[in-house]
């Protein structure tokens, strides 16, 4: 389960969902939104987040399986809309060692250049 010490405070992503913090939204539906990362690590760097607050990958329940699948379908749609025809990377960080900085599940969609491997 989540080990976020600030779990009682709304995350920046929750503030975006609530309309308290602006975001450059590129996609939204009843289950999720997608927006440009404010600290891009590639020419295209979009975050896809569920409206349901799920802190980490470890907090995904069996009831969330369809939602998580939907996040990846949206990631694919966003990549297509952004013209990432030559490929892209999806990333989900989990926990401190995984470099998760916002404890609200999110899929990074990175592209627009050749990405290196290994990533870490």
Automatic annotation (TrEMBL):
Gene3D superfamilies xrefs: HIT-like
GO MF annotation: an example: catalytic activity
Domain HIT: 12-120
UniProt motif (Histidine triad motif) ranges: 104-108
Matches recorded under Pfam families: HIT
Active site: 106 (tele-amp-histidine intermediate)
Annotated protein name in UniProt: Histidine triad nucleotide-binding protein
